[in-house]
Write a sequence for this structure.
C-alpha cells in the first residue's frame, strides 16, 4: 500500500509539473502574441496605425522602429500581465459595445 501511495504521489507531481510547464508556455505565447503591432492594429486600425507609420516611431534616421508595446505596456512581467488584464476587461468591452 505504501509503494502504491508513493507512486501515485510521484505521478501526480509529474502531471502537475507538466501542466505548469504547458500553462507557462501558453501564457508566454499569449503575452507575445498580444504585444505585436499586428495585434494592436486589429483594433486601432484607422488613425493610430496611420499616425504611427508617419511618425518618428516608425520612420527615423536610426532605422529603429518603436512598436506599440515599447511605450504602451510595462516591460516588467507582473505589471504587463495586470495591464493586459485591464485591457481585456475594459478596452475590449468598449470596442465591442461601442
Amino acid at each position: 500500500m505504501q509503494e502504491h501511495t508513493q507512486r501515485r504521489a510521484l505521478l501526480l507531481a509529474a502531471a502537475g509539473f507538466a501542466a505548469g510547464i504547458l500553462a507557462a508556455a501558453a501564457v508566454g505565447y499569449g503575452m507575445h502574441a498580444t504585444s505585436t503591432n499586428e495585434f494592436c492594429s486589429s483594433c486601432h486600425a484607422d488613425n493610430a496605425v496611420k499616425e504611427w507609420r508617419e511618425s518618428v516611431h516608425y520612420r527615423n534616421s536610426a532605422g529603429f522602429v518603436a512598436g506599440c508595446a515599447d511605450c504602451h505596456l510595462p516591460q516588467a512581467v507582473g505589471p504587463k500581465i495586470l495591464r493586459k488584464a485591464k485591457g481585456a476587461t475594459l478596452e475590449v468591452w468598449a470596442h465591442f459595445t461601442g
Notes: The chain has five helices and no strands. Residues 2-33 form the longest helix (32 residues).
